[in-house]
Amino acid sequence: AQMIEFDVHLTADQDLVVTHDYVLGRIIKPQGEKGHIDDYTLSQCQQMGLPSLKEVLVLVNKRVALNVELKHETLKSPMHYEGMAQKVLDLIDVLDYRELVIISSFDETVLRTLRSLDSHIALGVLDHTPEINLKCELAKELKAKSYHPHFLHLNRAIVHQLHSQGLLIYPYTANTYAEFQRLLDLGVDGV
């Protein structure tokens, strides 16, 4: 793989943990009765087998590019948005990942916060809607590097349109060889 993607949430103590699910239980069994990622500190998350963002970055050791998706479920206030964005940016700089990372999100506030804090970081706009033009406007406004639609919303004309706007295209949730092949045939930049 030339790039890997993973999701990041804030913990109860405002640290960064890598996991897809906000609600624990599907993959990781929570300690105690609580079942949300932000009910636990980073140390507790690590005891359940979830790594910190720093641990993942150190483990990858710049061998591949990264698509770091910032999840919004744990962001309850403007302070949380800015805190998470700043922590991710600081870690990327401290570990010298700036040229190897795209920070993506479905959440417009997360993306706007990142752009306000850093005018040069590579951003990716995630989109689950079939109205691609709406999120393309956001991508242009934020000077995003990439656009990440659901794989079923792509066809050759849309891929051409996105590429003509200077966007890399990284669709998500393709799970079969046939789906991957169709996307590659359309000319996407990665899956």
Word description of this protein:
By secondary structure, the protein is of the alpha/beta class. The chain contains seven helices and seven strands. It has a seven-stranded mixed sheet with strand order 2-1-3-4-5-6-7. Helix 3 links the parallel strand 3 and strand 4. The radius of gyration is 17 Å and the shape is globular. The relative contact order is 0.12. The mean pLDDT is 92.
Average predicted confidence as pLDDT: 92
The arrangement of helices and strands along the chain is: EEHHEHEHEHEHEH
Number of helices: 7
Radius of gyration: 17 Å
Main sheet: strand order: 2-1-3-4-5-6-7
The beta-strand count equals 7
How does the major sheet shape up? 7 strands, mixed
Q: pLDDT below 50 for ≥5 consecutive residues: which ranges?
A: none
Write the layout of secondary structure elements.
Blueprint: E1 3-10, E2 16-18, H1 42-47, H2 53-60, E3 65-70, H3 78-94, E4 101-105, H4 108-117, E5 123-127, H5 132-141, E6 146-149, H6 156-164, E7 168-169, H7 177-186
Helix pairs in contact: 3-4
